[in-house]
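Hi! If you just cloned this repository, the fastest way to understand the data is to look at a raw example. We've pasted two of them here, unedited. The first protein comes first, obviously.
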Amino acid sequence: MRGKKVECEYKGSKIEVFLKDSYFPPKSIEQLSVDGKVIAKNELSPFRLFSRIVSKHSFDGIDEKIEVRIAQGVRSVRIATQIKIGDKVIGGSESLQYPDIDKLNLRIGKGYVQYFLTFGLFRFGLPFGIFFSLLHIGDIAPWSIGRFIFATVTFGLVMSAFFWSWLKKSIHQLPKL
């Protein structure tokens, strides 16, 4: 089991985030602690696109919301962690590729067919169809057009189904704000 630890200070309190991933058995543990006391913990699938931990804690007698965002870092393939209190980033990475959850809920809520037509077909299917057509550039025109359409639609359908279900599962695993 590999792990990552992110620490920061806020109003004299030490805030720590522990991330542990295990692929056999598949499990990811995300833990938020303040001054050594665990205040929130998530156990999820390690195969997720993003995650967050949300909790409230009293700093100097004032209850404040702590939000930890976990996603891919900007210009990086590694996981990045951002610790926020209110709207202010107090620790971890300054920037990460955390999606707008409301936009994702809207996109997922419209259904798979809408997701395929507006996103998957152009993002996945079209580039694959063009590449596949370039591989068979010398073929007879009617066959190449049919092959292009078949490759575009088929690859777009498969990749859209994969990403749509993955996003849907990732969104439903998030704790509510």
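Ok, and the second one:
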Amino acid sequence: MKELKERLIKAKKLKFMRNVIVGVIALLIAAFIINIAPGYKRDKYKDVVNLIIDEHNVTEDLKNMLYRDNGVFPLLPVETFLCGITVIALTAEDALKLKNGQALPAQGVPPFAGIAAACLENKLIALIENKENIISPIRVFNL
């Protein structure tokens, strides 16, 4: 009886070891397949700032990537990307109102369609829109 129990325990140990070895081999095969699989997309940009637009990573679609010597992705000024937009110069009083999210009457402001950049002394204050002769801030910048 004792001999039968020992054989049973030995058989269970062998079966357990066999299962562990089969599992390790399966993991190695899966890792090998993933490593050489065609079309498997790796994140080349995991250690740099990624550009996300509408929940999609568009970093790989960028034409020119800028890097500093230490590998940090530089942040360019906001004004860099607004070169084709209408710019409206503000007085200090109007700039303060826009910074606080208040709307302004459009009197004395040249008419514009769509979105414009409101600036005070060449410093971007807000993105604004003109609706029914009322200028409203869309996005206020605290730069």
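That's it. A detail worth noticing about the second one: The chain is about 30% helix and 20% strand.
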